[in-house]
Amino acid sequence: MDQKASQFVRHLLANPSLKAYAPLQKEEQIISFLRINAGRLYPTLSSPDFFPGQSWNQIYKLLMQALYASTSESVVSGLKEFFARTINFHFLSFFPRPTGRSDDRETRLFSFMMKLIAHPLARKALTGPYSAIQLHLAHRYLDRIYDGRGYIRFELEKVQKLAMSQEEVKNLIRTSILLRPAVFLFQVARLPGQHEVAGLIPFQFAQKVIQALEKELPFLPAELLESAVYSNVSFDERNDIPATARLSALFSMLACDFHPGLKIDRGAVGQERSWFGIARRNHRLFGYDVKMTDELYRLAAENGW
Amino acid sequence: MKEEKRGALDTFLTVAIFLVLIQTFFEEIALIAYWPAQVRGYLACAGFAFDLLFTIEFLVRWFTALGRKEGGDYFFRRRGWVDFLAALPLLLFDSGPRVYVLSLGGSLFLAGGGALNMLKAVKAIRLARVLRFLRVLKLFRNIKYVDSSMAQRHLTRLSTLAVSTVVFAALVYGFFVSVLHIPTPTGVAEAEQNRFLDAVDENVKAERYFKDLFSMRGDLLLVRDTDKDLTLYTRFNNDYYRRHFDAEDYRVAEKGSHAFFFDLRDARAASAAQQLLVFSIVILLLIALLFLYGPHFAVTVTDPVHVMRRGYEEPDYNLEVRIPSRYSGDDLFILSRLYNENYLPMKIRERTPESREHSALTLESLGDLNGLK
């Protein structure tokens, strides 16, 4: 039966309409598909050729296990590649906290990522961050940000006082993005009356998460953990959260809504520009820094993104 | 299978329309460049074949529509009138008579204008020839330049209006020219020839006299004595006439017992140049509509409407409308700005985790699951 479930999931994953999606996005799409079409799929899937005698819940569970296994395999492989080739952790040396040996640090960070993947809520929250990494958002936008002397660069260099190279800032933001879902390892507190989709957490709760993470990830500097965790805090609530946290939030949320296969019609602007255009009008609700969003909107418009 | 056949037939007709445009163009060029009569004869035959083809096409469409009780709809709404005007009158009044005259062969010239009545008939309905230019509309119908059916309809209607106006203006102009005796290149040539004939002394038979006449008028080709059925003087030999003159390239004017053959090719070339001008106007008008106005219409009307429609219909389609700065004051772009700045942010704000649950996967896209059994 497990084999049948794997076979069916592989068939779904191979569907051309999912071709452009990142693995976790594919997983989301398939979960939605199964939920939406449960009624129509059940007669086929409960037939003797598939899962005879099983209830829909049992079939769904079997398919989920197969899907999680398949997606995890892809995500783990992608993360391994990312840790091995894309990122380096030299930026950590700019922070005061002493860190362990680099190979040990990377291994432990990778293990922590595996923990996120295994946790249902954190895994779901990882979709945006993972896609942001795949889309090279930090890389592309940081290049343009450092071409000029705008608000974001000022915030990074003068306010957050990141005395490191552009490449190291990129790596800091990438790591911050990846660690952003770590808050979901804890019982997440929500802001009262807060929009469910925005996914923001209260500042006090974020501080507690940072304290807990400092124990779990002692080899990482507090600045990095703050950047990752505060990316879930509204800029409206705390306008002193680090610039890297604000950028991590924007890139993660953008990637979460990004549809790789979407055809950009003539007469429409690009997905990223559209997203920032909407984000700057909804900045209060989603807790974005409006000035930062404006600048990113301008960069997306200038570059046709 | 039926669709495939229909597609193949449409492709064939599109190719035929392209070819007929080329044929129309070359028919005029042939007159301007004084191409040999034989080549012009081939072009005329090709024109006849096309007229016949399009007449058959019109009749098939017309009777099919009648069978479905959609005759009026086909004729008036689906531009059956273009199919009709660009086929039947041309077959009956242009290419048909011309091919008939051609079929009389090279002896016509020497026969002393035996088919004059037919020639006059051809000249009388020459006005109908401008209707050929309506055929470009048939081609336009097949071009799917823009996706939107609204853009298609607007462009088609506009092009029909523009081309029909030019063609009918040429037709009406031709009619008034004919009724009011406004000088045409052929008319002017004929009037000059008539004035010349008035001065000719028909009683003189001396060869020297004819020689002088021929040196005075370069368009005088041949003089025959009709009583004796004898050629008195000729500028070229018979072989030259056969190769370079068709039935419409000359006129015969009689004075006394003499028949004077005049060359009309210069006048025909001038008329062909006028036809070519109308043809060029029609073609350029359509090119301008298709390649200048079409994209403009798409950018300023159908594209923003399409983007907004998708945004309203599809939960995951949240792209902003591109607003060109120079058209930002257009009502449609003011509406687009409201869509970008109010509707899309509101759409995102109103989104719930449940409303986000949709998938690019569809049951239909799964295909046959039997292979997984």
Question: Can you put this structure into words, describing what you see?
Answer:
- The complex is a heterodimer of chains A (305) and B (373).
- Chain A is mainly α.
- Chain A has helices spanning 2-13, 23-36, 38-45, 56-86, 102-118, 120-125, 127-134, 137-145, 151-159, 166-179, 203-216, 222-230, 243-257, 271-281, 283-286, 290-302.
- Chain A has two domains: 1-86; 107-302.
- In chain A, helix 7 (127-134) crosses helix 13 (243-257) and helix 10 crosses helix 12.
- The longest helix of chain A is centred in the first third of the chain and has 31 residues, at 56-86.
- Chain A is globular and about 65 Å long.
- By secondary structure, chain B is an alpha+beta fold.
- Among the domains of chain B are: 2-144; 186-268.
- Chain B has 14 helices and four strands.
- Chain B has helices spanning 2-32, 37-67, 71-77, 80-85, 88-103, 107-110, 116-124, 135-142, 149-179, 185-199, 207-216, 238-244, 265-313, 331-349; strands spanning 220-225, 230-234, 250-255, 258-263.
- Chain B has a four-stranded antiparallel beta sheet, with helices on one face.
- In chain B, strand 3 (250-255) and strand 4 (258-263) form a beta hairpin.
- Chain B is elongated, with a radius of gyration of 30 Å.
Write the layout of secondary structure elements.
The complex is a heterodimer of chains A (305) and B (373).
Chain A: H1 2-13, H2 23-36, H3 38-45, H4 56-86, H5 102-118, H6 120-125, H7 127-134, H8 137-145, H9 151-159, H10 166-179, H11 203-216, H12 222-230, H13 243-257, H14 271-281, H15 283-286, H16 290-302
Helix pairs in contact in A: 1-4, 2-4, 2-7, 4-5, 7-10, 7-13, 8-10, 10-12, 10-13, 11-12, 12-13, 14-16
Chain B: H1 2-32, H2 37-67, H3 71-77, H4 80-85, H5 88-103, H6 107-110, H7 116-124, H8 135-142, H9 149-179, H10 185-199, H11 207-216, E1 220-225, E2 230-234, H12 238-244, E3 250-255, E4 258-263, H13 265-313, H14 331-349
Antiparallel strand pairs in B: 1-2, 1-4, 3-4
Helix pairs in contact in B: 1-2, 1-8, 1-13, 2-3, 2-5, 5-7, 8-9, 9-13, 10-13, 13-14
